[in-house]
């Protein structure tokens, strides 16, 4: 099956301005449903299994978890293997935001939203069915290759450091930081906070990290820019 993605050589860059507030997000035992979404466990020999043994992680269902022993309830998903699971849609991967390796191959997924991977700053190895494109476009990855039925997206590029690609301007007193494939955020430099980082002062942690403040995004601006690029074969 050859999908028409070769015509789609527009790199979509989602500009995300996240001003000063970042949601503290920690995985608790109740949230690991993603690990048991699919039957079985991470199979021996797969990318996630290899990465997991190399990282001394623990396999739990389809996840590889890293346990921070001195922090209560702090298991982080560092690898997620949802391959061969008859998935036709993937709508929420948020629990795996800290993953380095994610495998969604061998699934009849027709479409993946780029925003699924927003905030996935560690993601360095994403394996997809061949019909899907890498989130953020080829330009967001160091290496993109298609092998048989599988699409490999390897090494996330630092969007804040791409000369000639797009000049990213963050407001004064803030710095561009990568925020997942194709995403960046403008983070206030120390002591500045608020809209456009104009106010100076201590961050009001108690007020902001209230019960509903999982992720307090005040302003987000999405700009869709397209840029024609020649396919670079790797
Ligand atoms: C992205 O890279 C893959 C693999 O090299 C290629 O097949 C595809 O056409 C490229 N897509 C774009 C939009 O350049
Ligand atoms: C996984 O495979 C390797 C070699 O392919 C083997 O040495 C190892 O024992 C296997 N582990 C399990 C749990 O099956
Ligand atoms: C996919 O899963 C089925 C069972 O659900 C199994 O028979 C098949 O071998 C698996 N395919 C691969 C490539 O692992
Ligand atoms: C999971 O296993 C159950 C029982 O073994 C089976 O009925 C179901 O189809 C399996 N689901 C997938 C996605 O393979
Ligand atoms: C930006 O990219 C250049 C070359 O591509 C590299 O030498 C430099 O270390 C990078 N800077 C950061 C902050 O990643």
From TrEMBL:
<feature type="signal peptide">
    <location>
        <begin position="1"/>
        <end position="22"/>
    </location>
</feature>
<dbReference type="InterPro" id="IPR032675">
    <property type="entry name" value="LRR_dom_sf"/>
</dbReference>
<keyword id="KW-0732">Signal</keyword>
<protein>
    <recommendedName>
        <fullName>EGF-like domain-containing protein</fullName>
    </recommendedName>
</protein>
<keyword id="KW-0472">Membrane</keyword>
<feature type="domain" description="EGF-like">
    <location>
        <begin position="156"/>
        <end position="198"/>
    </location>
</feature>
<dbReference type="InterPro" id="IPR042350">
    <property type="entry name" value="ATRAID"/>
</dbReference>
<dbReference type="GO" id="GO:0045669">
    <property type="term" value="P:positive regulation of osteoblast differentiation"/>
</dbReference>
<keyword id="KW-0812">Transmembrane</keyword>
<keyword id="KW-1015">Disulfide bond</keyword>
<feature type="transmembrane region" description="Helical">
    <location>
        <begin position="205"/>
        <end position="225"/>
    </location>
</feature>
<feature type="disulfide bond">
    <location>
        <begin position="188"/>
        <end position="197"/>
    </location>
</feature>
<dbReference type="InterPro" id="IPR000742">
    <property type="entry name" value="EGF"/>
</dbReference>
<keyword id="KW-1133">Transmembrane helix</keyword>
<keyword id="KW-0245">EGF-like domain</keyword>
């Amino acid at each position: 099956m050859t999908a028409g993605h070769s015509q789609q050589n527009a790199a979509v860059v989602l500009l995300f301005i996240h001003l000063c507030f970042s949601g503290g997000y920690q995985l608790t035992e109740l949230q690991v449903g993603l690990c048991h979404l699919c039957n079985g466990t991470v199979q021996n020999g797969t990318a996630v299994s290899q990465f997991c043994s190399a990282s001394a992680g623990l396999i739990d269902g389809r996840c590889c978890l890293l346990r921070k022993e001195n922090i209560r309830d702090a298991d982080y998903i560092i690898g997620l293997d949802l391959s061969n699971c008859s998935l036709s849609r993937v709508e929420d991967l948020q629990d795996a935001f800290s993953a380095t390796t994610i495998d969604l191959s061998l699934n009849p997924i027709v479409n993946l939203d780029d925003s699924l991977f927003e905030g996935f700053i560690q993601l360095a190895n994403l394996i997809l069915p061949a019909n899907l494109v890498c989130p953020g476009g080829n330009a967001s990855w160091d290496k993109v290759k298609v092998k048989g039925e599988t699409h490999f997206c390897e090494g996330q590029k630092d969007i804040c450091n791409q000369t000639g690609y797009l000049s990213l301007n963050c407001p004064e007193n803030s710095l561009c930081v990568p925020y997942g494939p194709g995403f960046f955020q403008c983070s206030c430099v120390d002591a500045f906070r608020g809209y456009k980082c104009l106010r100076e002062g201590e961050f009001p942690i108690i007020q902001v990290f209230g019960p509903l403040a999982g992720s307090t995004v005040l302003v987000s601006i999405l700009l869709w820019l397209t840029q024609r690029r020649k396919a670079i074969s790797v």
